[in-house]
């Protein structure tokens, strides 16, 4: 009798043991599957991670101390960029913000004024750095999607009188972030810059995504940069490098910018490990930008066809799509649904949602992303 009980107990134990093992394996499988669901992250083109080939280039890069000017890879990146944009010199800097701010610093004196579009990145998202670093005042101006007309520029100039700041610099941004990656028309830019120059202003281009403007318009980086004294150019947006921006301009200004980079704590030592990623991005990734632009257009067309969300369609687009939801939906409502299905989007202003495309988003993912948005919006509208 007791052996029968013992046998039953033993069988029970074995069943329990296998049940526990089954639970463990299936839970592990569940977690693995969920953690490897591909997220389609369209919040920005800054979310890329270095590809294996880019990592290999970083690994192989010859290095030295760049503060001594002895990092061969940084020197190569600076020479390569200067040549590409046809400027006397270029400087590798940690970020787009530092790039813009160094250029403003070397173009202005304290008490000067800088003209820029009221939607400029420098005005909205650079933490009042021009006031802190250069001690200059910004005059935000009305624009036609980033293009400030010659008449607006002339009207905004200050009289030469001790009451006023000295108007010193015109800044344009191309492509334009808050206008959804729009490419500024070349001739209109040339007219703005011409008006500024006629009145003795220096000109700076926030070209964080100038590479996209070049890919979309077939105008060379050198042709765009010829309009400006200084340009800042990001490596870490659509080009996919993990860190870094370049500035370019006359050698004397770049020397001064190098000094200010040091003052701001931006002197990096064996920075060639990062510069190698930048060089790789400039050589290998610029040609991928056209595909990003086609994916953005595909996404916008899929929203347009479904007829629920309203993509902004004016102007020459690049790698971004900005769209609005149908009334009465708000971003918070679709965000959770999108997240649950592995899609990330960004809210960039009241009712304006942004999707940004880059080389780590495929055509299939683009189609999936549009289908997810259309699907969620349709079901929310039904329930509303
Ligand atoms: C137009 C523009 N300029 C400058 C920057 C600043 O670049 P970073 O984030 O590298 O400082 C950005 C960043 O998104 C940008 O969109």
What are the key terms here?
single chain; 384 residues; alpha/beta; Aspartate Aminotransferase, domain 1; Aspartate Aminotransferase, domain 2; 2 domains; seven-stranded mixed beta sheet; four-stranded antiparallel beta sheet; 16% strand; globular; binds pyridoxal-5'-phosphate
Short description:
This protein is of the alpha/beta class and 384 residues long. Helix content is 49%, strand content 16%.
The count of domains is: 2
Q: How many runs of DSSP E, i.e. beta strands? A: 13
Strand order of the largest sheet: 2-8-7-6-5-3-4
- Enter the CATH topology name of the largest domain: Aspartate Aminotransferase, domain 2
Strand content: 15-25%
CATH architecture of the largest domain: 3-Layer(aba) Sandwich
First CA to last CA: what distance? 67 Å
Query: Quick one: CATH superfamily of the largest domain?
Result: Type I PLP-dependent aspartate aminotransferase-like (Major domain)
Describe this structure in words.
The chain is α/β, with parallel strands linked by helices and 384 residues long. It has 2 domains: 40-48 and 288-383, Aspartate Aminotransferase, domain 1; 52-284, 3-Layer(aba) Sandwich (Aspartate Aminotransferase, domain 2). The chain is 49% helix and 16% strand. The chain is built from 15 helices and 13 strands. The chain has a 7-stranded mixed sheet, with helices on both faces. α2 (52-60) crosses α12 (272-285), α3 (72-85) packs parallel to α12 (272-285) and α13 (289-306) runs parallel beside α15 (363-383). The termini are far apart. Pyridoxal-5'-phosphate is lined by residues 95-97, 100, 121, 173, 177, 206, 208, 234, 236, 245.
């Amino acid at each position: 009798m007791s052996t029968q009980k013992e046998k039953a107990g033993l069988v029970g134990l074995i069943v329990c043991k296998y049940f526990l093992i089954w639970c463990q394996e299936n839970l592990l499988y569940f977690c693995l599957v969920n953690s490897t669901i591909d997220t389609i992250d369209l919040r920005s083109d800054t979310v890329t991670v270095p590809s294996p080939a880019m990592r290999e280039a970083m690994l192989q890069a010859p290095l030295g101390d760049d503060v001594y000017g002895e990092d061969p890879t940084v020197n190569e990146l600076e020479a390569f960029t200067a040549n590409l944009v046809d400027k006397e010199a270029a400087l590798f800097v940690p970020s787009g913000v530092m790039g813009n701010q160094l250029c403003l610093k070397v173009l202005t004196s304290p008490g000067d004024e800088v003209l820029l579009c009221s939607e400029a990145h420098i005005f909205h998202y650079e933490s009042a750095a021009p006031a802190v670093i250069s001690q200059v005042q910004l005059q935000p101006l009305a624009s036609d999607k980033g293009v400030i007309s010659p008449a607006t520029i002339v009207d905004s100039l200050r009289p030469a009188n001790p009451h006023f700041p000295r108007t010193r610099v015109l800044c344009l941004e191309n492509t334009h972030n808050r206008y959804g990656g729009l490419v500024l028309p070349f001739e209109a830019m040339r007219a703005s810059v011409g008006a500024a120059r006629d009145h003795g202003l220096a000109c700076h281009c926030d070209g964080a995504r100038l590479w996209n403007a070049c890919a979309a318009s077939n105008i060379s980086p050198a042709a765009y940069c010829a309009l400006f004294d200084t340009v800042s150019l990001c490596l870490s947006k659509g080009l996919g490098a993990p860190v870094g921006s370049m500035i370019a301009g006359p050698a004397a200004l770049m020397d001064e910018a190098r000094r200010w980079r040091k003052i701001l704590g931006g002197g990096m030592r064996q920075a060639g490990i990062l510069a190698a990623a930048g060089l790789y991005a400039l050589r290998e990734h610029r040609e991928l930008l056209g595909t990003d632009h086609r994916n953005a257009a595909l996404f916008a067309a899929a929203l347009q066809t479904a007829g629920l969300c309203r993509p902004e369609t004016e102007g020459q687009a690049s790698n971004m799509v900005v769209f609005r939801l149908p009334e009465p939906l708000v971003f918070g409502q679709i965000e959770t649904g999108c997240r649950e299905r592995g899609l990330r989007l960004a809210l960039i202003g009241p009712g304006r949602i942004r999707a940004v495309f880059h080389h780590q988003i495929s055509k299939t993912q683009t189609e999936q992303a549009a289908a997810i948005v259309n699907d969620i919006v349709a079901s929310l509208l039904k329930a509303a």
